[in-house]
Amino acid sequence: MVKFYSTTYDYDYGFSAVTLAYFLRYPNPYSRHVASTDTISRHFDPETQRLTTVRLHVKRSRIPAPVLKLLPKATLGANEDGSTQSFILEKSVVDVKQGWMHTDSRNLDWNNVLSVIERQTYRRPTAGVGANEEQRTDVDVSVTLKSRIGEQIRKRRQRWGQQATATSVMGNPEKEIVEDEPVQPGWFNSWTSGAIRSAVETISLQRTEKSQPKAQKGMSVVLARLRNGGLEGVLEGMRADREVQL
User: Fold this and answer.
1) Residue 9: beta bridge partners?
2) Is 206 a member of any domain?
3) Which residues is 58 bridged to in the sheet?
4) Residue 170 lies in a domain
5) What share of the chain is helix, strand, coil (3-state, %, to 5)?
6) CA-to-CA distance for 105 and 57, rounded, in angstroms?
7) Portion of the chain with pLDDT greater than 90, in percent
8) Is residue 78 part of a domain?
9) Is the full-model pTM beyond 0.90?
10) How far is residue 3 CA from its own chain's centroid?
């Protein structure tokens, strides 16, 4: 089963300011877990007037205790205290002329445990709805969480079933049909893979519901710094946040 999260909100700032703040949002007081951000590529298309950027974020986090009880630390790449780091690939496309920005962020590791895809759309309000709309940007957020625990086992059993069917149809008695290996006793026996997947997705959804409001607050801090002190104010705030991290 797949879990979904979605929300909508707006910022009382113009589209240009919000898109600039998006690229300057790390670090901020609500995202000190972000260790680094690197730009992999950036391309401006003169025909479409669109800017495409690909970045890599490295985030420090602590795996929730309930997840640690379900899965071995080695599976998650976590330390003894549950701390770990993750790599997030972010792609964004900005169309200043039409007034929209689409972003797509997804984790590069832990995919065998949980895949998280977050998509955001920033839009300039429709023209003609009011003079104050120039100082507002609408945001749509959707997050898809899918656990992949047990998929390799299912795929392997499907291959075995296909091999067995093909052998039966072809009538080849010399080819031995591979049977399912018995499940070894251990931590996995007390839970089915489906139950574990559902539990991991539910815990991750709860964490997403808590983290999204913080992300919104973090952007608001960066926007306030931009309004009050310009780019210099944002950079000074970033420097102060890095010192707190250290």
Assistant:
1) 139
2) yes
3) 36, 87
4) no
5) 40, 30, 30
6) 10
7) 52
8) yes
9) no
10) 13
Look at phi and psi of residue 159 and say left if phi exceeds 0, alpha if psi is from -120 to 50, else beta.
alpha
Which CATH number is 212's domain given? 3.30.530.20
Within-domain flag for 142: yes
Count of domains forming the chain: 1
Q: Which two tokens stand for residue 74?
A: 């080695």
Structure token pair of residue 209: 């519901």
CA count, 13 A, side-chain hemisphere, 58: 8
Tokens of 4: 């979904």
Specify the DSSP element, H or E, that contains 120.
strand 114-123
Boundaries of domain holding 114: 1-160+192-242
Q: Is 50 helix (H, G, I), strand (E, B) or coil?
A: strand
Residue found under tokens 């973090």: 218
At 153-208, the pLDDT tens digits run 556 556 666 665 665 556 655 544 444 444 444 444 445 677 777 888 888 889 89
